[in-house]
Write a structure and sequence with these properties.
alpha+beta; 11 strands; 11 helices; 456 residues; single chain
Length: 456
């Protein structure tokens, strides 16, 4: 259940925008932190280099001006966490020598040409480059080993070398507790603000989806208030115009159908009266049958138009009880109809329209199959009604043809005289008005199976 909710949330517009925003926030923080670390390392390296050169020059002057017995104390006082100093007669190891730094130190000290100065600029771990006498001055075990920036030596007048190693702390700012807490606080504020903004923005879209679903089921819905950003208002306005046009189209079509059927009754009645004055014979009998057929078609069309024009409200109803009542009526009339017992199934729709659609299907099944079995299945997302008769069935290439108005398949269904072929067309129309589907198929064990699918 939690996985489904998470998948639904991530699939929603709000969830996707928040996820993208949070990813962007973390990415910006990481990039900013990396840029800051690089800038900090570069700045610290520059400051440390200048500080090292100044301190080296000061210590060198002091060593030249002080007696040898004070040199050890001078070095001890001059050392720091970022500058290691020692005296030795060992010549420093050459590395990547910096002639610029050597020139600066020599010129500022006004150093004698015969005294050598070796300054190497390098970035690395460098602990092995320390002279043996100074390895005891390494950083404690609980700290990181620093990066070496400058190292080398300056030759003194007594032949000894002032060895130095300039260190810069390699610990760059990382994900400290304060940084993590500030990121969490910023993400929470951003998430809350975006949830409020997106819910306010997408609320009209949710109303649009609900209204569209109700409209697809044939329910009468009021125009949506056109609020929100301009794009949302344009969408809502287009939906309201579409709904108005659909209502006008359906109303005009129904009125036109009823008007045509009603107007045809006058010439039909005139023809029936004229036919009565014809001499008895086969021609008169055929004309009377044709006129009677036309009258049945007009009556059925008028009844359908009149029922379609009725504004029956949508309401919650027990679909199991509705089907059971239809089956009981047919059983009382002596027909073989059975319904599989099941729990109540609630459905929102038009009671009379559904009753008429299902009644047409049941009566067709009895008329052409003599016996009918009905099953109701409450499945996730929809309700399935299965109506099976035990008749001869229909050819596969004619399964869709029977839904066309006034279509009769006498050879396949052995229709009784008087059928005009509107039953299945009306049933499918009424099912479509509820957002459902009606399909016909030949059962594997004989007979025809009508499947009605209604959305929850």
């Amino acid at each position: 259940m939690k996985t489904d909710r998470l998948r639904y949330w991530l699939g929603s517009l709000t969830g996707q925008i928040i996820l993208v925003a949070l990813c962007a926030l973390v990415l910006v923080q990481l990039v900013s932190l990396q840029i800051y670390r690089l800038e900090r390392e570069e700045t610290l390296g520059l400051v440390n280099s200048r500080f090292t050169l100044q301190r080296l020059m000061a210590v060198t002057r002091l060593l030249h001006q002080s007696p040898p017995e004070l040199h050890r104390e001078i070095l001890r006082a001059s050392r720091s966490e970022t500058l290691l100093l020692s005296l030795s007669r060992q010549v420093p190891t050459d590395g990547e020598r910096s002639r610029l730094f050597e020139h600066i130190v020599r010129s500022r000290l006004d150093y004698a040409p015969e005294l050598d100065i070796r300054i190497n600029a390098e970035t690395g771990q460098g602990q092995a480059l320390l002279p043996p006498s100074e390895r005891r001055h390494r950083y404690p075990p609980h700290t990181r080993r620093p990066d070496i920036r400058l190292y080398g030596g300056i030759e003194l007048s007594d032949g000894r070398w002032l060895h130095f190693t300039s260190l810069v702390d390699a610990d760059s700012p990382g994900w400290s507790v304060k940084a993590i807490l500030s990121l969490i606080l910023l993400a929470a504020l951003l998430t809350g603000l975006m949830i409020w903004l997106l819910q306010r923005t997408t609320q009209p879209l949710k109303q649009l989806a609900r209204r569209a679903e109700r409209l697809g089921r044939g329910d009468k819905v009021n125009p949506l208030p056109e609020t929100g950003p301009s794009e949302i208002r344009d969408t809502l306005s287009a939906f309201n115009r579409m709904q108005e046009r659909l209502d006008r189209f359906v109303t005009d079509r129904t009125r036109m159908l009823a008007a045509i059927s009603h107007d045809l009754r006058t010439p039909l009645t005139s023809l029936q009266l004229r036919c009565e004055f014809l001499p008895e014979g086969e021609d008169k009998h055929k004309l009377q049958q044709g006129l009677k057929r036309m009258e049945q078609m007009l009556n059925a069309t008028l009844r359908f138009a009149r029922d379609d024009a009725q504004d029956e409200p949508m309401r919650d109803l027990d679909l199991s009880s509705l089907v059971q009542s239809l089956c009981d009526d047919l059983q009382d009339a002596g027909h073989l109809v059975s319904l599989e017992e099941r729990e109540p199934i609630l459905f929102r729709g038009r009671s009379q329209a559904l009753r008429r659609a299902l009644q047409n299907l049941l009566e067709n099944g009895i008329k052409y199959g003599e016996r009918v079995e009905v099953r109701l299945l409450d499945e996730p997302g929809h309700i399935r009604i299965l109506i099976r008769d035990f008749g001869p069935g229909i050819a596969d290439d004619q399964l869709e043809e029977v839904f066309k108005p006034f279509t009769r398949l006498d050879s396949a269904r052995n229709l009784e005289d008087g059928s005009i072929g509107l039953g299945l067309a009306i049933a499918r129309t009424l099912i479509h008005q509820h957002g459902g589907e009606l399909h016909l198929a030949n059962h594997s064990r004989g007979g025809l199976l009508a499947t009605v699918i209604l959305p929850h």
